[in-house]
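Supplementary notes for students who missed Thursday's class. We covered one full example, reproduced here. Read the sequence, then the structure, then the short commentary at the end.
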Amino acid sequence: MIIGDAAGPVDRAKQLVNVATNAGRHLQSAQTGLVHYCYRSVDSENQDTIPVVENFLFALALLRERTSETVTEGKRILDRLMYFQNFYDEASQGNFPVYIHEFPHCHDHYLGAQLLPIFYWTLRHFGLLLGADLRERMHTSASALYNYCHHRLEEGSPSFLPSVQIAAASKALGELWENPQVEKEGDVRLAELCALSREDSFDAWMNASVLGETLVALQTVYTNLEQSPWKHLWLAACRHWHSKTATFVGPPVFERQRGLQPDPNVLDLLLGFHAGGFSYRSFLHSPYLLKAALIHPSDDSFLTQTTPSEDEGSYSAGRWTVLQTPDYAVTAAEGAIQRDKFGCGLRVVWGDHNYAHSLVCQGGNIDDLTYKAVPGGIDLIVTLPEEVPTEARQKNRELMFFLDKYDGVSISISGHATATAFEFGEPVEIESAGMRINFMCALEEGDGKFFGHIAPGNRPSQLENSGDSRFESYDWQLFLRTVERHGKCKIRVALRFTYLETDGESS
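Structure (token representation):
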């Protein structure tokens, strides 16, 4: 792992290529020579399915290694994959199956959105190395795939990310093929999508994974996003990147956790590349690392956020605020907690490149959540609904906080480290990796009795609690249980943050 300024852009680019290749090797079958992986696998030891996208990414990574052995292997994989493009069914003509055993059936209408950028980079940088026959087959394949994606765009309404991927690939391939019509189609779509991304209600950029893959797709067209019409997305990514933890800390509308840390994604790799260092978690084995093959050096410069800072804005569900200090970041969003299991009303992140710790307010039985930034912290004002939950297990857990359950965390109630229950007005203190969080609840409006508890559990956005890990708990829950209440009421949760001096990095 490279942290800080230990290496220049060229070395970091090589590192990303190596990471992608190693990810492919980890999933490669000795029998078939292809990447085996199943998106919905529960227990992942034996995986027989062969996904098309990951194998195209693996082939691109092998080509980018630029050794005679890896180039030969990459070409061999590409040659085999070409035979699984659908030229038989008129409705799917040009598309690929999700897994090769499903051929000729193509269940994902927008799979081509992920494949077109791979075709572009392969044809642009390795056209001569492919040889005349394979180059012509790839050109024909890319053309058929583009035509299919173009028709899907005309007939359907894909989400923002595949639309951008197809539009950017259209412009890039149009330039590469010297085809003005294809290039113009890409230009028109990109302009429409760029205008959409500037609207106040646009919130796709708050999803770190979507933002990262959008920026990677746009880099097929723009060598400098900072000087492009999409500058606002590049600046949003830089502005909400917490340098000490190497973590995106934008509005907490799409929080995802994998095990004890935030779920790594392409944005971690992209901004790690431009900011000068990667987090440890971003290189932990995961099939997403194959997408590192799509990240290329560019003229973009990372714009370091000066801290302390406060940024705020609005989106379709309400307002959001991002508070950053050199050591931690606090983000809050109204309406996010009602969105789905990935939405948070509050997210606090601290730690370093080795370990990003987090506390989130997520799940529960909340009708509305607002917040107020105060010196040294934030107050949450939570409205509980008219309907009172039953006494059934977990149904009456109306307000829930989750703290990653690493070995060094300590939680005390009124100074007692062994206590596991608290009442309104009792101070709860959390210490974790140099961060101290003081937590206290009070009844703001209405009538009710509540009791607080501390217990192991998993936040709703936990992705690791399945398969062999389905019985693991990765968090401490701090939740309020309703004993009795009558109708709506409001609860104020006061959180205050203090960063303590530590002798070294997080464990």
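Commentary. Residues 9-294 form a domain with the Glycosyltransferase fold (CATH 1.50.10). The mean pLDDT is 90. If anything here is unclear, bring it to office hours.
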